[in-house]
Amino acid sequence: MVNTKVFSVGFVLINAAYVAVAKRNNNHETSVPTVHVKNGTYTGYYAPAYGTDNFLGMPYSQPPVGDLRFRVPQSLNTTWSGSKNATEYSPECIGYGRDTWSQGNYVSEDCLTLNVVKPVGSCQNLPVLVWIHGGGLVMGGSGDRRYNQSFIVEQSMEAGMPIIAVSINYRLSSWGFLYGREIQESGNTMNGFRDQRLALRWVQENIAAFGGNPNQVTIQGESSGGTSVGAQILAYNGRDDGLFHGAIAESGAPVGAGVDFDVDDWEPIIANISKATGCQGTDSVLDCLRKIPVDQLNAVINSTVTRGARYGPVVDGDWFTQTATKALANGDFLKVPYIIGVNEAEGVGFGPQRINTTEEIFDYLVGSGYDNLTAHEISILYPDIPAIGVPSTLHGRPNATFGLQFKRSSAIAQDLSMNAARRLTAHWWARHGAKSYTYIFNALVNGLSYFAGAVHFQEVAFVFYNTEGLGYPQNGGPNPLGGSERESLVVLAKQMCRMWISFVNYGDPNQNLGRGCPSLLHGCHPY
């Protein structure tokens, strides 16, 4: 049984009349939303511009500090009387990179919180969408304004398919994905992924109090958030714990690219960390690291001491008992409805530039970890023909300064980093009788030249319906939906956002999109 659908998303101009079906409660402005969860009561705030009630910064775990540092997350074990404020985002988890500092957000080791955005007033059994942010598993957070979920909840109400949206923080970098022999033996592996799973358990226990349906939860992530979605699907050989029932992965997949990084690769890094912190030679490096002041340990992690560390899935014998490729082939994955896609020019950002010769292509592949024979075969499979290279928006051959074979190297990087994993995942979904949809996003957004094309992350503003580009200036860029093509870009954003909303409601992105709203599925056919 073949269940995978393929569609390419571009931008076109559509004359579509959308009817707002959500009824706003005009009297709600004078009231303050409250919710009673298992551990106590929270007070949120009403956002009249979007017709939503918002509850922010709610812990789903005990703080992973002190003796709980580098341990699997622990469920909340306290209750309270009265009501706690849930009106501000918590600090993000400690991370390293532009997504952490450019948004001006605070970071803290005490960061395991989540946020809920719901339609205003009382509601029952609404489908739930849980957002897992990207950032290479080393940076980012749910408070990033580019991930404001008010827009998608507002769109869900206008489309007559209301949803509740959740976003989560999880531990990053060494704080969440440190690995090594002692960590493996103690069972404290993949803690960032375990954080995500505990957040999903919190949703199961509490989302009904917000009007959500715990039996209709979809998880969504982009980049390493998409990888995280894949990690949840593969966890414990695809064991169904009833935590989610659909999945969306944008530019991320269960299958990773590159060379495996295992416990033997991690041991020299652990040795460097233990030496830099004075924990070398102790009975337990982990116990010693748990006593190091957070600022001191942070300085060590954010230094050359951890150079070469690769954070991500590792076959640890618990969370992962086999490689992702074997798990998919064996059918050891949770067979939920799945959207998985990529942007058309991912390779522009993940591949090399200034590539002018076939020899340089070969050197790039060998330097990426491929043996000589494989590198030679790949170079043959990707001939130097600019017309079939990436991005498609760049016609002809660029000059030597940019790279005479730039389109060739980008096409190779595109498939190695994203496309191969997308197609392989969709293939195994179909082979095992599971329903999946796969897309390629190829819109040229505002602020990007035809040399770049639809690079990594560019679809995010569209699926969130972030038409004003909230958060993008802080990251050094313009509104992706601005410029001379704004009208058509906004129409595409509404279409994509509502397709995701449709999937959350029906497990199908093509349901109930509304009269006068033609689909942007170009050549939809079985995979």
From TrEMBL:
This is Carboxylic ester hydrolase. SUPFAM superfamilies: alpha/beta-Hydrolases. It comes from the Eukaryota. Belongs to the type-B carboxylesterase/lipase family. InterPro entries: AB_hydrolase_fold (IPR029058), AChE-related_enzymes (IPR050654), CarbesteraseB (IPR002018), Carboxylesterase_B_AS (IPR019826), Carboxylesterase_B_CS (IPR019819). It comes from Aureobasidium subglaciale (strain EXF-2481) (Aureobasidium pullulans var. subglaciale). PANTHER family: ACETYLCHOLINESTERASE, CARBOXYLIC ESTER HYDROLASE. Residues 33-511 form the Carboxylesterase type B domain. GO terms for molecular function: carboxylic ester hydrolase activity.
